[in-house]
Amino acid sequence: MVHRRLQSLLFACGLAAASAIIGTPALAATWLVHDVRVFDGEKMHEHRSVLVNGARIADDNFQGKAPAGATVIDGKGRTLLPGLIDSHVHAYRYFDLPLYFGVTTQIDMFTGVQAMQEVTARMARGDNAGQADLFSAGTLATAPGGHGTEYGMPIPTLTKPEEAQAWVDARVAEGSYFIKIVMEQGHPGRAFASLDIATVKALIAAAHKRGKLAVVHISNLADARAALEAGADGLVHLFVGNRISQQDLDSFTQLAKSRKAFVIPTFSVMESIAGVRATDIIGDAAFSSLLDKAQKQQLAHPYNPQAKPELLAAPQAVTAALSKAGVPVLAGTDAGNNGTQYGASLHHELQSLTQAGLTPLQALASATSVPAQAFKLPQRGRIAKGYKADLLLVDGDPSADIATTRRIVDVWKDGVSVAPLRKQQLALVAQEALPSSGLALPADGRISLFGNDKMGSPFGAGWMPSHDAFLGGKSTVDIKLVGDAVQVNANVAAGFAYPWAGLAFMPGRQPMQAANLSAAKVLKFRVRGDGQQYNVAVMSGGNNIPASLPFQAGGEWREVSMALADFKGTDVSAISMIAFNAGPKSGSYRFEITDVRLLAQ
Fold this sequence. Notes:
Elements: H1 15-18, E1 30-39, E2 44-53, E3 56-59, E4 71-74, E5 78-82, E6 84-89, H2 97-100, E7 103-108, H3 113-125, E8 133-136, H4 164-174, E9 179-182, E10 186-187, E11 190-191, H5 197-209, E12 214-217, H6 221-229, E13 234-235, H7 246-258, E14 262-263, H8 267-273, H9 279-282, H10 285-288, H11 293-300, H12 313-325, H13 344-355, H14 360-366, H15 369-374, E15 391-395, E16 408-413, E17 416-417, H16 419-433, E18 449-451, E19 454-456, E20 462-467, E21 476-482, E22 485-492, E23 501-506, E24 522-529, E25 533-540, E26 547-552, E27 558-563, E28 575-582, E29 587-599
Parallel strand pairs: 1-4, 1-5, 6-7, 7-8, 9-12, 12-13, 13-14
Antiparallel strand pairs: 1-2, 2-3, 5-15, 10-11, 15-16, 16-17, 18-19, 20-23, 21-22, 22-29, 23-28, 24-27, 24-29, 25-26, 25-28
Helix pairs in contact: 4-5, 7-12, 13-14
């Protein structure tokens, strides 16, 4: 499944906004976790000490006294694990959030190409300590009108086997780490076109020719079997159902084993489809203290408002059989969907896997060494000499109780403690929860501090250009300061479902982070331009798409006043963006804007 909230990408401001992180982590140093229980990715070891030097593990079974100057961390009664790996996400926001929950690597099944390339570049520079690493498929392979095309992103589709190699080569050129293929007919009332099996087989062969893994999205047993028979390296979902016959179960398990494939069940999203809420993490005070209002809302609201836990019987039986047969089972959440949340949901996934028959040790491996091996991820997923110092320290023994993974003491990414970032997040969430009329507005309400060669703001991440190009669209925008105004020169181009270009204000501490603007009742601004119609789009935490109102930019300066209450469905206590956009009609646009204010009346 690809998340509905991907629609909100249509109005975000590009990867630079989406991947911004809170604060700057300290430099890595030499440190020792002393006398700790160690899960090395496969086995549990008692009374070990692990030495870290910089971004790497220097010794996974250190003996003797700590080196001079090394920081010593007491491991008594605690367990040190490799940083967790979520094997199925759709990464488009909250790039730092997984770290707070010990998830240091995400395997992404579909996101914007620019997003994928930017994180890949950060990783190559060794400059990604403040957010989770990402290994992405980038664009997925689907048919015209197929699953993945319904979210507004322009998707290069294909219809026949002869197109497969060129399609795969284009993804490899973009930087896709592996190839994801969609086999999905949908359901009654929501049908999709799907790739035929000949094209699926050709895509798998084309990926293998370029040394890339080929994984397949399925939602029923027939497609799961067809994908494996076509040579897929792995399935990125299982399928819901209230039963599966013993014959089908045995046959499918044997097929997966004989093809040496891996499977990512994604219980977190299957439970959302079944209306089962992740009460274990929703009700965990330590976890909820790290999630802001919008993040909690997404986690707490599954797709199905009616609980139908019987739909989990089939995937639980299949998962148990696969594990017993030695088929690699990987922990993946499909985070980005309703009923899930980055980082936090992986701990729920581990519990769901144990409920489906895995032992706690098997579940831990499914989120560390097993995905690292299956996806050929370099130097992660284990605690071993020379491996990345991506580590999670918890109180207690998760091999006895998998819920112990939620008792987080500290997280390290590239040898750097995430504790300062977690502390900042805790403070932000606590501040949001305080009874308040919202952020204090400037005395004059002005949020546009334009001039002196900068676009300033009294709070938030501030002002930045916004356009659809980072999602594969062709629109562009040029922003110029003209005195105390900003001139927006936009070219809105066809080729994208909802093309736009303009200027956006981000009121949160980081781009697309919600801010409480409940003290504001009215948005006012002065504008002039080419006489065309524009719109103000307001994004808030609980909405999939922004609410918008139109305005005209004539040849003379005029003041526009809009009541925030008129932006239907907007939660003013959790506004993440206010944008002034041209589009969706194609063409050239020009307007100037100044004196933007949020007023109490």
